[in-house]
Amino acid sequence: MNDRANSYGQVREELARRLREPAPGRVQVLSGPRQVGKTTLLLELKAEFGDRAMYVAADATEAALSGWWEQMWREAERLATVAGGAVLLVDEVPYLANWARRLKAETDRIHRQRTPLHIVVSGSSAIHLGVGARETMAGRFERLRLQHWSATELVRQLRLTPAQAVDQVIRFGSYPGAQRFLSDRVRWQTYLRDSIVEPAIGRDILALESVRKPALLRQVYAASTGHPAEIVSLQKLCGQLSEKGALETVAHYLHVLEEACLVAGLPKYARTALRQRAAPPKLIVLNNALLAASSNVDPIQNPVKWGRWVENACAAFAWNAGQRVSYWRAEPLEVDMVLEGDWGAWAVEVKTGDYAVRDFQGLLEFCRLNRTFHPLLLCDEGQEIVALRAGLPAQSWQSFLLDGPAPGKAVRG
């Protein structure tokens, strides 16, 4: 299985390239959270391939009719035969009962008959899509994971200026469909709750057999969005919940929320897995829109909240870009983010407002103990001078949210 997490533009380009390869190939599974553009992407591919492409929505009313599934395949195979090759695009496939088993049977038949048909399936229920593909479609599929949009993607796809995109990622999140409601905050928050949060929690996650306490799951989500970029012990989290649950259950629900691309519990950086598991998680909400949906106060009006939201946006950006993100703490020292992946190995401290040399102590100590990591301070634009005087690489968090760790843009002593 090839499971890649990329931006909207990268996923579209890669998927179009695969569909130009000889058919039949492996089923292409497009997964990811709700409202990040999966349907739009499939419709763009339908337009690009024209008469050689067939788009169907499995959540449409007619999909529930007897014989719809069989008729869809007959039409797709006829199109592939007549055109000498075709593409079948099935949106929201988890809405179909036993979709993975039925898709496996049809895929095996297509390959036996060597029908020149490419198959792409997608679904907003990212958890069910992933589980069904892994358990039933093993060896028959490749997955492309479309994640929450970055500031750079807002610039590329929606023509925002870089400054507008960064500001929006922090204060309003990056759901493309929410753009048209930004001038009406009440309507915008209603859209987020009704089109993203409630379907993801109330339908996708609660349909899992492993979720036996729906009220507790909702409270874990609410408590997580109330503590962005904070290290919170499971015991403390349990203490804030009106419905009590075992620590193992709360930990499991945090994992489920991460699978749904809503909240991630970052582990503590440690050289052994045992020490990682014993440490409390650092809660990161994977799109700041989910923070804003439950807050009526603009974070820019509160310096403490603003700092938390900026740090949360930076960590979420790294997580969504496929980096391994953790934190480090050895009382009283701490490092906000430890990044590992194709960006390299970085220890990152995020500061908003004024800061002093003493704020670097955790960063410097971590890099002394872990010499493969590069230190990096993220600060307000124009505030790099303090880090410069201390000989520490620095970069504005604005440029980080656009480019990631960019040594060419960092100020060095």
Tell me what you see in this structure.
This protein has helices at 8-19, 38-49, 68-83, 99-113, 126-136, 151-158, 162-171, 185-205, 214-225, 234-239, 247-259, 273-278, 288-292, 303-320, 361-369, 385-389, 397-403, and strands spanning 3-6, 27-31, 53-57, 86-91, 117-122, 141-146, 230-231, 263-266, 282-285, 324-330, 333-340, 346-350, 374-379, 394-396. The chain is of the alpha/beta class and 413 residues long. The protein has 3 domains: 3-146, P-loop containing nucleotide triphosphate hydrolases (Rossmann fold); 152-313, no CATH class; 321-413, no CATH class. The strands form 3 sheets. The chain has a 6-stranded parallel β-sheet, sandwiched between helices. A 5-stranded mixed β-sheet has the order 10-11-12-13-14, with helices on both faces. Strands 7-9-8 form a 3-stranded antiparallel β-sheet. Strand 13, helix 16 (385-389) and strand 14 (394-396) form a beta-alpha-beta unit. The longest helix has 21 residues, at 185-205. The radius of gyration is 23 Å and the shape is globular.
